[in-house]
Amino acid sequence: MGLAARYLEEKGFSTVVLTQTPDFNRLVGIPRSAAVEYPYGRILGAVGDQAGQRAVLLSALNVLQTAKKPGEVQHLAYTWPEDSKNADWQPPEMSPLIKHYLEEIKRARKEQKR
Amino acid sequence: MKQDQKIVDGFRFLPPGLKAWIQTFIANGPVYGAIPWAPLKRPLNQTVFALLTSAGISLKSDPPFDMEREKKEPTWGDRSYRALPRNISEKDIDVRHLHINTRYIKEDINVMLPLARMAELENEGLIGRLAATAYSFYGFQWQNTEFLQEAIEPISRKMKQEAVEAVVLTPA
């Protein structure tokens, strides 16, 4: 998504990316990011939570207006109400990519534990 | 504002193995060059907006994003895009994505593509206007930038045609 933002910005559009994982900014160089600690697939908020979705959206628009320099990330203060283990954001079936790289993923986990 | 005090944990929702694996890419990958920059030309209440998501949303009347090929080729992701009229709701859409639970988007499209919320801000005069068309592509583009030419380039042309000035991007 960061690459799409860069592309659009080069074409003259002002962009803001709402993101759960602002760490990717190191690799991509995203013009403006609003980071929010919400589960994947519900970046604006919970189903039916109109007030919460509106608040996140207004915060993203605020970043568009207030960011001063390329690559700026503003961290939003919202807190997801559920424990991360209960967020149930993952697909019903393990993704083909994860299946494909499962051994590598397990190895990365082991190495991090050391 | 208090918002400046929180630092988002970008890995809070990931299982430990996936977190460790992704962190290896971020730590070892090349760092970007110069960042393009096109600041807003007008205040929000005079600006024309469009929404763009990578959630794999399509109209029920259009072909869905292709998940079958990805199941056979795990590093391939559909590089096409879909135009979505601004007045649609969850009852009009299909959602295909093999890396998230798509259930919530099908229950309330605004959790990823906040069309109704933007329409409210437009009615209240907080934004200038929401363009007639929003867009989705499919966010799983593994080490591949061809989607920029195949999806984002035509999207950007359509946005220009609709006088869009600013874009809110929502990754799945």
Attribute tags:
heterodimer; A: 114 residues; alpha/beta; three-stranded parallel sheet; 5 helices; globular; B: 172 residues; five-stranded mixed sheet; two-stranded antiparallel sheet; 17% strand
Describe the model:
With 114 residues, chain A is α/β, with parallel strands linked by helices. Chain A is 41% helix and 18% strand. Chain A contains five helices and three strands, in the order αβαβαβαα. Chain A has a three-stranded parallel beta sheet, with helices on both faces. Chain B has 172 residues and is of the alpha/beta class. Chain B contains five helices and seven strands; from the N terminus they run αββαββααββαβ. In chain B, the strands form two sheets. In chain B, strands 1, 3, 5, 6 and 7 form a five-stranded mixed beta sheet that branches. Chain B is globular and about 45 Å long. The relative contact order of chain B is 0.22. The model of chain B has no long low-confidence stretch (mean pLDDT 95). Classes of the chains: A alpha/beta (114), B alpha/beta (172). At the A-B interface, α1, β1, α2, β2 and α3 of A face α1, α3, α4, α5 and β7 of B.
